[in-house]
Design a protein that fits this description.
This protein has 429 residues and is an alpha/beta fold. It has helices at residues 5-14, 16-19, 23-35, 53-59, 70-76, 91-101, 135-145, 153-158, 174-178, 192-203, 217-220, 260-263; strands at 42-47, 80-82, 106-111, 114-115, 124-128, 131-134, 148-152, 171-172, 183-185, 346-354, 359-366, 371-376, 382-387, 393-398, 407-412, 415-420. It contains 12 helices and 16 strands. The strands form 5 sheets. Strands 2-1-3-7-9 form a 5-stranded parallel beta sheet, sandwiched between helices. The chain has a 4-stranded antiparallel beta sheet with strand order 13-12-15-16, with no helix packed on it. Helix 1 packs antiparallel against helix 3 (23-35). It binds ligand FSX and iron/sulfur cluster. The site of iron/sulfur cluster has 13 residues, from loops.
Length: 429
């Protein structure tokens, strides 16, 4: 695939407004591309466990300016050296191309979660010298040598649908696997403009500022609800009522961040809520488990309320064995490995609001006997500090909480995770 520096630059200048690229970045991109003598850094795209929807989303990119479709963008503007679905090469030739591309500067793009159960053998990417190479091994190897690692889609960013409970293949996100701070571009699927925006920034030498979930702040800073045109509309009681707010039908716009309302999809034609669907929360780290059931008002989602203790470590039985969830649906801040402490893992398996008794239930796993701090992610209000048991399980049951939290923040050792609170009412804080 050929590179056209001028072409890529022309595309970014032409699409700067639509992409949300500041002119300062376009200027730096021009300088950076001018300094390149042997073409652009190559892009190597690997696919783990996923539906390939993110590639399809990129393939649907439609624009009146610059590249008009995927073939135009990727074959004429950047060097997509390896992509399992789009490259012409196959077999040994493809593997050889991969090695050539990764012998020099390259950007690693990963689509899909990474299976770690069964030695990673539920997801093989290629065969070399008669040996199957797992996604786990390939991502470990290439991420260590890449100039930047982009996790495309919610699966690569946070585990996503393949990591949904009970997560039988042990899916983890790329950052959880590698311990690296990846640039996460979640969305199920991700928006093609978000990918192009990020790559253009990287080529310009601008590493985008990331939020606590590793997402570029510029793309994911606002809640869907904040700029939804239906904020002041009457609330629909059933689907098919144009121009209505869908909160009572399960819309997750209040706890989901992305610029969908202004950017829209399919070349700006429409977006989920505009098409009469609720927002499912697909750009957030807890998706899909913490946003389920999708089509139920969050307030009405209640579990049993059999807990009798106020705050203790996890011997309660309900919902306690979330199987092999390796934490990929939780995430946050200092994602990646620990910083030298003894706590090497932290997962939030449950974060539930139970209207009855105004009870907050948060539970998960960490290192045995580690101290776990649970607080409100937005206000910092402390809900409790508890000790994990000898199996690393911990559980907080906090009754009579004055204001239901939208999202909780959990810390153990040097690790921090956050998760949206399932069942939190619309007036959560
Ligand atoms: Fe996941 Fe994307 Fe959803 Fe699918 O890459 S983000 S399942 S649309 O394809 O990985
Ligand atoms: Fe829009 Fe959903 Fe917020 Fe209603 S709840 S205003 S549909 S984002």
């Amino acid at each position: 695939m050929q590179i056209s520096r001028r072409g890529f630059l022309k595309y970014c200048i032409g699409s700067a407004a639509a992409l949300g690229l500041p002119l300062s970045v376009v200027g730096k991109l021009e300088e950076a591309l001018g300094a390149v003598t042997d073409g652009l850094p190559k892009v190597v795209w690997l696919a783990g466990a996923n539906c390939t929807g993110c590639t399809v989303s990129l393939a649907n990119r439609i624009s009146n300016e610059g590249p008009t479709d995927l073939a135009d963008l990727l074959t004429g503007y950047i060097d997509l050296a390896y992509h399992p679905n789009l490259m012409g090469a196959a077999g040994d030739q493809a593997v050889q191309r991969l090695h050539e591309a990764t012998s020099d500067d390259f950007i690693l793009v990963v689509e899909g979660g990474i299976p770690t159960a069964f030695g990673g053998h539920t997801c093989m990417l290629w065969t070399e010298n008669g040996v199957d190479v797992t996604a786990q091994a390939a991502v470990q190897d290439l991420s260590a040598r890449a100039a930047a690692v982009l996790s495309i889609g919610t699966c690569a960013s946070h585990g996503g649908i393949p990591a949904g409970n009970p997560n039988p293949t042990g899916i983890v996100s790329v950052s959880e696997l590698t311990g690296l701070q990846t640039i996460n571009i979640p969305g199920c699927p991700t928006h093609p403009d978000w990918i192009v925006w990020t790559i253009a920034n990287l080529l310009a030498g601008e590493v985008p500022a990331l939020d606590s979930q590793g997402r570029p702040q510029a793309l994911y800073q606002g809640y869907i609800h904040s700029s939804c045109p239906y904020r002041n509309a009457h609330e629909a009681e059933q689907f098919g009522r144009a121009g209505s707010c869908l909160e009572d039908l399960g819309c997750k716009g209040k706890i989901t961040r992305a610029d969908c309302p202004s950017r829209k999809w399919n070349g700006g034609v429409n977006w989920c809520i505009g098409a009469g669907s609720i927002c499912l929360g697909c750009t957030e780290s807890g998706f899909p488990d913490s946003f389920s059931p999708f089509y139920a008002e969050q307030e009405s989602d209640s579990h049993d309320s059999s807990d009798s203790s106020d705050s203790n470590s996890g011997s309660d039985s309900d919902d306690s064995s979330s199987g092999s969830d390796s934490g990929s649906s939780d995430d946050d801040s200092s994602t990646g490995g620990d910083s030298g402490g003894t706590t090497t893992s932290l997962q939030i398996e449950v974060a539930d609001w139970r209207r009855k008794g105004k009870t907050l239930v948060v539970q998960g796993r960490t290192a045995p006997d580690a101290m776990v701090m649970i607080a409100n992610a937005a206000t910092g209000t402390l809900y409790g500090v508890i000790a994990a048991d000898s199996d690393g399980r911990w559980r907080l049951v906090k009754r009579r909480v004055a204001e239901p939290p939208c999202r909780v923040h959990v810390e153990a050792g040097q690790l921090a995770r956050e998760r949206n609170v399932r069942g939190a009412p619309r007036k959560c804080v």
